[in-house]
Design a protein that fits this description.
The protein is α/β, with parallel strands linked by helices. Helices cover 50% and strands 11% of the residues. The chain contains 15 helices and eight strands. An eight-stranded mixed beta sheet has the order 3-2-1-4-5-6-7-8, with helices on both faces. The longest helix is centred in the middle third of the chain and has 23 residues.
């Protein structure tokens, strides 16, 4: 099976840091790879420069990787389609490809987030726009900078079709990129999205010069919130103890690469959200996911105090120190209520 797979062609829709890192990983494994981006000018720049300076500086893009911004039937005649487009832009990009997609082509979503207007997860957006295509997720604690440099990384392939999940596992696994499988698509996708909200909170702690005690409490209680909402939405609680739950949460909350943590840190230092976002070239998914998760928690009547306070800080100009005080002074309760 492996030799057959290695002769296949893969398109990656999204030439940001993660899309580029996966393109390099798959190309080095022997696949024919197409890296697509919506901005023709930037795609031409990548073709000439052979380095994604904006999103993955210092990592050369092999000359054998096809870089394009075109869309055609021939371009979509591939073994799998990897969707690596940020959630706020996902629907509009998918619509561009709708008339060219070959029915039955497996889709691998590596996008993290929840759409604001519909409250759909990326896999649901894909199904909504592209119809009944076989879909797998590939998510987990995986900074593009580290994957591109060949540092050991573990992620999760998740699909309702276990055979597809195993195929994705085989396609992406390398000596430095290990892929597990998990059939719980809801839990895998929610954990990967909601950890970005907690990461903003972790950044605020850093900006306020809080210590390790504060961040440990935040990660632990943040995971309790993620699990609480996830279970109500149909996820398996054990998933949140795994790579796309606790693993992704730890990475995002402590890493210097984390865009969401950085946004929180700047806010903790006294800057306003719009001022912070204007200085960023990449999108901080957690900002928009905070809106979606707050809406979901209200809709489903799930208590999520950390998320609510982050929403208040981001969108109602609440003072971060006041938000922390509100969390600390909530009515005392037993931790075991969260562990049963």
């Amino acid at each position: 099976m492996t030799s057959k797979l290695l002769s296949k062609k893969i398109i990656i829709i999204g030439n940001g840091g993660w899309g580029t890192a996966l393109a390099i990983l798959l190309y080095k494994k022997g696949y024919e790879v197409i890296l697509w981006g919506s901005d023709a000018t930037y795609s031409d720049y990548l073709k000439e420069k052979r380095e994604n300076v904006k999103y993955l500086k210092g990592i050369p893009i092999p000359s054998g990787i096809c870089i394009t911004s075109n869309i055609s039937q021939k371009l979509l005649d591939v073994h799998i389609v990897v969707v690596a487009t940020p959630t706020p832009y996902l629907r509009s990009v998918l619509i561009k490809f709708k008339d060219f997609l070959v029915q039955g082509t497996p889709i691998v979503s590596v996008t993290k987030g929840i759409e604001n207007d519909t409250l759909m997860r990326p896999s649901e957006i894909i199904a909504n726009v592209w119809g009944d295509q076989p879909i797998s997720l590939l998510l987990g604690p995986s900074h593009a900078e580290e994957v591109a440099r060949g540092l050991p990384t573990t992620v999760v392939a998740s699909s309702k079709d276990i055979a597809l999940a195993r195929t994705v596992q085989e396609i992406f696994t390398t000596k430095r990129f290990r892929v597990y499988t998990n059939p719980d698509m809801i839990g895998v996708e929610l954990g990967a999205a909601m950890k970005n909200v907690v990461a903003i909170a972790a950044g605020i702690c850093d900006g306020l010069k809080f210590g390790d005690n504060s961040k440990a409490a935040l990660i632990t209680r943040g995971l309790a919130e993620i699990s609480r909402l996830g279970v109500v939405m149909g996820a398996q609680k054990n998933t949140f103890s795994g790579l796309t739950g606790l693993g992704d949460l730890i990475t995002t909350c402590i890493s210097p690469y984390g865009r969401n943590r950085w946004v929180g840190e700047q806010i903790g230092k006294g800057k306003k959200l719009q001022e912070v976002l204007e200085k960023m070239e990449q999108i901080a998914e957690g900002v928009w996911t905070t809106k979606s998760v707050t809406a979901l928690s209200n809709k489903l009547n799930v208590e999520m105090p950390i998320t609510q306070e982050i929403y208040n800080v981001l969108f109602t100009n609440k003072d971060p120190l006041e938000a922390v005080s509100n969390l600390m002074m909530r009515t005392p309760r037993s931790e075991m209520e969260e562990l049963v």
